[in-house]
Amino acid sequence: MEMFYHLHLSKRMTTILVTHQMDQALKYADRIIVLANGKVYMDGTPEDVFSNAEQLKGVNLEVPEILTLINTFNQKFYGTIRYQRQSAKELAKQIAEQIREKRQK
Description:
By secondary structure, the protein is mainly α. The chain contains six helices and two strands; from the N terminus they run ααββαααα. The chain has helices at 2-10, 22-28, 46-50, 53-57, 65-77, 88-104, and strands spanning 32-36, 39-44. β1 and β2 (39-44) form a beta hairpin. α5 (65-77) runs parallel beside α6.
């Protein structure tokens, strides 16, 4: 998968990824089209599509775990973390930094 994503970025090639794995769609897609019964059900950026959890549930899809974690953290701890295709390690670092900052206040 990484090889195709590298080609997509370096050669500015249009690529199409067909998947039911929402984590991959979030990581690699610039645009997501969700189909239901052969028709376009949702169409937009990953941020737009995954901000509609209820609509996704309507077609048996889930919000990627990393977004659920970020949203839960931000809601419970008044965080300001945004998803920027960061790795789990980078996200853990951002969470730790925000917790440290809040403790210092």
